[in-house]
Amino acid sequence: MYTPVIGCGDVPKPAIDLAAAARDEMIREGFDPEFPPGTDQQMAEMRTGQSRAPAREVKDLRHLLWSSIDNDTSRDLDQIEYAERVQGGIRVLIGIADVDARVEEGTPIDRHAGREATTVYTAVRNFPMLPEALSNDLTSLAENADRLAAVVEFVVSADGLIGGESAVYRALVRNKAQLTYNGIGHWLEGRAPAPRKVAASPELAAQLQLQDEAACALREQRHRLGALNFDRVEAAVEMSDGHIHDVKPAVKTRASDLIEDFMVAANETIARTLRENGVCALRRVVKSPERWPRIVQLAAQFGTVLPANPDSGALNAFLGTRRAADPVHYADLSLAVLKLMGPGEYAVCRPGDREPGHFGLAASDYTHSTAPNRRFADLVTERHIKAMLGKGPAPYSEDELETIARNCTIREDAARKVERVMGKRIAAVAMHSRIGQSFRAIVTGVTPSGVFVRVPDPPVEGMLVHGSHGVDVGDQIRVELVATDEQHGYIDFARV
Question: Which of 79, 172, 277, 338 has the most CB atoms within 10 Å of its CB?
């Protein structure tokens, strides 16, 4: 996903309308960028009506010092966090936006969300799964707004284990501080002073440091279990007056790690809760790597022998060794292994089924539940949780869940294609002035249509149009930028 960043300077206007191109790409991949008839009426009813919230089912937790951490420009806030030290560790509470309280099943907005399945992000225009007046306002856990939430509660021990006191329930919450990855991350890392809101509140500062302590313990335990530790180099787009200025590596911070660790723990807790209550529900699955033999070959190049059969613990140990030995090139190796693992998918887990698991996270119980404003699978899981809590009938049959799982997988794959194509167009605009320059690159794909490489700095992908003979995924080579085509998003490299 490309993240827009405000830039400066004189910027040439691209020859194409990138926002219009993004819309065309959405349609080409089977999305409908426009909301259906009946949306405006449903939104009007939401603005004047009340959330469906029986008071007897909802705890009032507005007094807690909740906060959120997200991108600088995010308005569709799905989660807020709170932590407190207790006997046996740190109790963590994660509030997840109760989108279902506003979006009733079977309504025009819900049917549209079910078809689209996901919000699609491009730097020039985003295509939300839900109307922005809903996801950015009525269901967003915005600062100083009273909102309904599904709360996931668990205790993290000093060694990163989640104890047996986990719980899921409904609550009324209020986000006391909307914070950002950059501001909080740089402060936690000791590279910048505390952001204004944190500096003004010793209680908030202590709260965030406690959250960071719990997240670090969770992360270390996941890695001990074999969760893979990738350094993914993503792109941030610098824009000036709506025009593309440059593409640079996005900076990952300790705050983004904190939220990732909490979301993984919340998703595991919810999946486990559903299983223990005999609920048929969706799971997020990453199966054993599709090209494990090639991963074994890559490891052998560094003198490491991996097992013949996929083993996440052994792979993570190898990755950790390489990260310590060569941190400069570790991102290249991470990208190669990530590509060789293959994509994730959604699956239906029935009572008594063996959990399909998530290879990359070394998790046997895992679902998607923490982003119902932008992923339909999460909204479906939220409805199952609420039905379980209310001891009501399941909101979806097994056949309906199978259909939803297939569509969510297909739509997320399509969303990645839109974001990848638009990322290439944006990169072609930004890279045009750098034709003739050379870069180090890693081979990311070998297909019948050609060989593809990725340059880590700036983080762009393109085709190797000369010198592709004999290369394979994971090979590190030197390339020269020879051509760009912003109309088609082509970036062509030659091996040097």
Answer: 79
CA angle centred on 226, ends 351 and 268, rounded to 5°: 35
β-bridge partners, 92: 83, 154
- CB-count burial class (<10 Å; 0-12, 13-18, 19+) for 308: exposed
Phi, psi of 373 (to 5 degrees): -75, -20
Q: Which H or E run contains 415? A: helix 398-431
On whether the pTM is more than 0.90, the answer is no
Work out whether the CA dihedral 332, 336, 341, 343 comes out positive or negative. positive
> How far is it, in rounded angstroms, from Cα 318 to Cα 289?
15
Q: What is the C-alpha separation between 165 and 69, in angstroms, rounded?
A: 25
Report how far residue 196's alpha carbon sits from residue 484's, in angstroms, rounded to the nearest whole number. 43
Q: Return d(Cα 216, Cα 221) in angstroms, integer.
A: 9
DSSP 151-193: EEEEEE-TTS-B-S--EEEEEEEEEEEEEEHHHHHHHHTTSSP
Question: How far is it, in rounded angstroms, from Cα 335 to Cα 321?
Answer: 16
Q: Report the SS3 class of residue 286.
A: strand
Catalogue all structural domains in the chain, each as residue range(s) with its CATH number. Answer: 3-286+343-426 (no CATH), 435-496 (2.40.50.140)
Q: What is the pLDDT tens value at each position of the chain, 496 positions in all?
A: 444 443 333 444 556 789 999 999 999 999 999 999 999 999 998 887 665 555 567 999 999 999 999 988 889 999 999 999 999 999 999 999 999 999 999 999 999 999 999 999 998 899 999 999 999 999 999 999 999 999 999 999 999 989 767 999 999 999 999 999 999 999 999 999 999 999 999 999 999 999 999 999 999 888 777 666 665 656 777 776 667 777 777 778 899 999 999 999 999 999 989 999 999 999 988 777 778 888 899 899 999 999 888 887 788 788 878 878 877 667 777 777 877 877 788 989 888 776 566 665 656 678 999 999 999 999 999 999 999 999 999 999 999 999 999 999 999 999 999 998 898 888 899 888 899 999 999 898 888 889 999 888 888 889 999 999 889 888 889 999 999 998 888 999 999 9
